[in-house]
Amino acid sequence: MQITNELYQQYKPILFSIGYRMLGSVVEAEDLVHEVFLKVYQVEEDKIENVKAYLCKMMTNRCIDSLKSSRYKREKYVGPWNPEPLLFEEAHALDPFDNVLQKEGLSIAYLRMMEHLAPDERAALLLREVFEFSYSEIANVLEKKEDNCRKILSRAKQKISGIESESLNFENNMSIINRFIHAFEQQHMNILLELLSENVALYSDGGGKVKAAIRPIHSLPSVLAFLYGIAKKTSPDYYFEIKNVNGQPAMINYMNSNLHSVISFYIEGDKINEFYIVMNPDKLRLQLVDDFFSPITEN
């Protein structure tokens, strides 16, 4: 099949979106997108009835294969694993008219929750809930019967039912995070108690390459102690910015003239329930995603 620049630009966003949501890795998603286009180049065009369906099927199945092969690698990962952050250009809410690829199933909390799903469950959930594929289309992608796909999806939704209560109101979450930062800096414990869940947890991802907590930290006192411990070790030139990361406000931290970490939040009921700190340098490229998430037009 002839791969024109127009065709590449048209379908690259949805293939990258599937890959990133399935794998939580920009590098792996990019690699698979290129692999899919190289492969489809070798396919005779008259054998492809629907280009989008064909490419999505190829991408999804490569992601499933990658997840199966990388499971051992994930289990050997040092400390908690967090998805690689994606940076949007502006630190404000996404335009409601932007493509749906920008809005659903993209938060760090959602992507972390996906780790609890088997590869086919992950694929069925994304294709149905995020990309709005029909059951017949999902069955074609996964090469399973429709009834089986319905059961897979039901099982997946049961496993991640807790994430459905996540607040995705950008402006409201921005207000909560700014209030938290101010209260943290001023050590206003009464406000911190108001903003943080009693069962708050913190997941620090250093990947064994930088110093980080190798186990999740649970309970409000322990999380605050850990955060204040980090604050005491900041360099004189430390500063942070609030940016749009994975569609939600997050702290981008700089220290010693370098990007140090990204802190994302899971907010539910106007309270911060979880912190996700990414310090692994391999995950701190903070690539802008405008090109990947541009609107897709249909043939």
TrEMBL record:
Any GO BP annotation: DNA-templated transcription initiation
Native source species: Psychrobacillus psychrodurans
Residue ranges of every copy of the RNA polymerase sigma factor 70 region 4 type domain listed in the record: 109-160
Listed name of the protein: RNA polymerase sigma-70 factor
Pfam families, per database record: Sigma70_r2, Sigma70_r4_2
Residues covered by the RNA polymerase sigma-70 region domain: 7-70
Assembly and oligomerization: Interacts transiently with the RNA polymerase catalytic core formed by RpoA, RpoB, RpoC and RpoZ (2 alpha, 1 beta, 1 beta' and 1 omega subunit) to form the RNA polymerase holoenzyme that can initiate transcription.
GO molecular function: DNA binding; sigma factor activity
